[in-house]
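Quick start: what a row looks like.
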Amino acid sequence: MVDIRRPYKCTARIALPQPYAEHLKDVISVDREISDKVVKSFSILGHDGNDDDNDRGVVGDDDDGSGNDTMRVLQIIFEATDAKMLRVSISTTYDMINVALRCFQEFGG
């Protein structure tokens, strides 16, 4: 159902090893949006993009060949009053994600 007050919507999903997904969610969800014209919601899903409460989204085999057997999907839902505000929020969030992932890589997240 589309909220008439925020008809513009975008869902982004990023697959990451479990600890990175959890840390990234904590890092980027701290700051409020500058404008009340945009709302973001965050959730952690299983590797296949489904929210499965039974196994908390843990994948038990080495799907990506990295040796890490617990992948998660960070899902971010953006809702905005207009297309420009949606674009600005997505762009800013992706910039924050990029910085956070570089820090994780450099300092061992």
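That is the whole record. Confidence is low (pLDDT under 50) at residues 52-64. The longest strand covers residues 8-17.
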